[in-house]
Structure formats: structure tokens, C-alpha cells
Amino acid sequence: MHFQLAWRNIWRNPRRTAVILIAVVIGVWSMVFLGALMVGVSDQMVRNSIATLTGSLQIHSRGYRADPVIDHSMEHPEEVVSVLKKNLPAEAAWASRVRVYAVASNARHSSGVTLVGIDPAREAAVSFIGGAVDEGRYLDADDPYGILVGRALLENYESRMGHKLVLMSEDAAGEIASRAFRIVGVYEAELAATEKQFVFVTKSAAQEMLGMGDAVSEVAVLLPNPTRGEGPAAALRTALPEGYAVHTWRELLPLVEAYLEINRKSVAIWYFVVFIAMGFGIVNTMLMAVYERIREFGLLKALGMKPGWIIRGVVTESLLVLLIGILAGNFLALSTVLIVARTGIDLSVFAAGAEFAGMPRVIYPVLKTEHVTAANLVVLVLGLIVSLYPALKAARFTPVEALAHT
User: Fold this and answer.
1) What predicted TM-score, i.e. pTM, was given to this entire model?
2) 218 and 58 Cβ atoms separated by less than 8 Å
3) Bridge-partner residues for 16, per DSSP?
4) What is the DSSP letter of 354?
5) What is the C-alpha separation between 48 and 52, in angstroms, rounded?
6) Which DSSP category does 131 fall into?
7) What pLDDT, on a 0 to 100 scale, did the predictor assign at position 45?
8) What are φ and ψ of residue 305, in 5° steps?
9) Which string of b and e fits 43-75 if b means at least 16 CB within 10 Å?
């Protein structure tokens, strides 16, 4: 009976009901859709960061992170590999690298870069570089003079495929070592800064140039679930001999972790702001409806209706309006997400600003069940709570006050 009466009451004034519905629909839509956009930005930042030579976790010699020089390289990487085989799931992939700072130069330009020596076959399964070559070819394992450079670096150096690039860096003996490499491939990355920073040669070529023997700078691991590295990292810390340090991507990328925390708090603040705006609309509209029906409530109390029944009736009206608005808002938000997810939101016009903030050039919204559920519960539960105020006002009217009301 309560639901039947409430349903009839909310349509007694369709315009007023439409105002509340519009407020609820816009509130739910903005919470779900904008939340999906923020989650999409976060997820893409994490995926891009993990793919850009970070991995789920990394293993170094102790001291390397504080001072990443050749002196802190891992002299016996086979020890690490044997532990990885025993302690990681079969689907995990890993690759050892040489990573040093270097100077890249040609006849016109020179700048600082990060020289990365890779095992081409293994690296392709761990980082972005295996599928990022846009022009030319990928590195061969037995290619001692081939080099991969980023598109942005190639353009800055006014160079092209087949041209030479000279790399200089400090070797294991503390002397300046240099070698000329020929550009065999050009890669493209999500961020132009990545294209300018990293140049890739084979691991054997880097070791030979720097006089490192079989030593490597790091071992990167990519797990089946790339973002869940804490458990495997703890197991590896226990299994590895002393002298090695294991770091998860969260430890390696503190700025990204800080952004994720800010993003989570921003979503909560956004939910609060939207609800406050929507809550005032609900309270004001319901109060208008209550004051227009003072004589009705007074008559009901004169006939013996208990105040609790009046409260239940007004709250039921709010519940029905909220449920309709939530369903419509979710439908609108899901439709918007599906449409935007096809092409994404292209930020290429603001590429410099987006890159400075570490954001991807194209944003794809990502819906997560927990965020949609949270948005719906916020609207429903808090909406019912704020509707208690006009319901209590309705329950307090006496028959005498109702008769005196004009």
C-alpha cells in the first residue's frame, strides 16, 4: 500500500518530480562517467609506466638504486635467474638489462640519453619495445652495431634510418668508452619524453662497449597480473642471496603512486560535491511538496494515521524517485562510456601539457564495478537520509495546524 500510494503521489506534480529526477540523473551520470575517466587515466598511466622498462618488479644489487653506476652491477645474474625460475609462476616473464647514462651524438647534435642493453627476445615479452618499432626492424641478438631510437630523438637529431649515432659513457674501468651504432629501427612510445630518453642496443654490445663481462644492471619481471607484485617480491626477497634488492613498481614509481592516491581522494571529493548539490535539490523539492500537502497530512493524522506511517510514506516517495533516477543515470553513464571508449578522448592538442602531467595522449574510460556500486550507494543511502528531514516535518504537523493552513 505504501508503494502504491507513494507512486501515485510522486506523479501528482510531474514537473516537480521531473526536477528531482533530472538532478539525480545528472548526479549519477557525472559520478559514474567522470569516475570512469579518472580510473582510465590512472590505469593507463600505470600500464604505460610498467611497460616503459619498469615491469611489475625489478631486482638490483644493493646500492644500485642510490647510485646507478657500473660498479653496482650484478656480477652473477645467473643466480637471480635460477631463483626466478623456482619462485615465479610459469606465466611470468623476465629480462636482464644493462642500463647506464650516456651521451648520444651525431654531426649536428648531442644530448644525454639512457643506454639500455637488452636481450631482444626476452625484452619483447617484458616491455613496450618489442611492439613499438614503427620504422625499420627490431634488434637481432647477434647485431653488435644496431640501435633503436625514438621518433622524437630522430627528429631532434635531424637524422634518419641507416645513419650513425655515437654513444659515449663511462666503462667499468672508469674510462670514457664510445662506439658508433647504425640506426636500424625507430620506435614510437606513448610519451615523447620516452622517445627522447631511451636508446636500445643488444645486451652483448653494451657489455662489450663498457667492459662489463657478463654483468647486468637489473632484471625486470612482468607478472601475469602486472600490478600485483607485492607477494612475489616478498618471496624473492626471502629466496635471493644477500646483496640483492627487490623493488615493486610502486617503489620504483613514487610519483605515479602519489598520483593514484590523489586520484582516489579526488574521486571521493567529487562524489561528496555532487551529492551536496543534489541533496539540496532533493531536500528543497521535497519540502515544497510537503508544505503543499499540509492539509492532507493533517487530515491523515486526524483519521488516526501514526507519524511513523507518514514518515514511511514520504521516504518511500523519495526512494522511488531515487531508484528511477539511479537507473536512468546508470543507463546514460554506461552509454556515454561505451561511446567514448570506441575512440577515446584525444588530448593531442594539449600534448605538451598532458605529457608534463604524465597523462596518456588518448584517454579511455574504464568502468569498475566497485566504483559504480559506490556511486549508486552514495546517491541512494544519503538521498534517503536527507529525505528524512522533510518526512519529519510532515509527521510533526497537527490537525489544528493543517486546518489553519491556507
Assistant:
1) 0.74
2) yes
3) none
4) H
5) 6
6) G
7) 83
8) -70, 135
9) bbbbebbbbbbbbbbbbbbeebeeebebebbbe
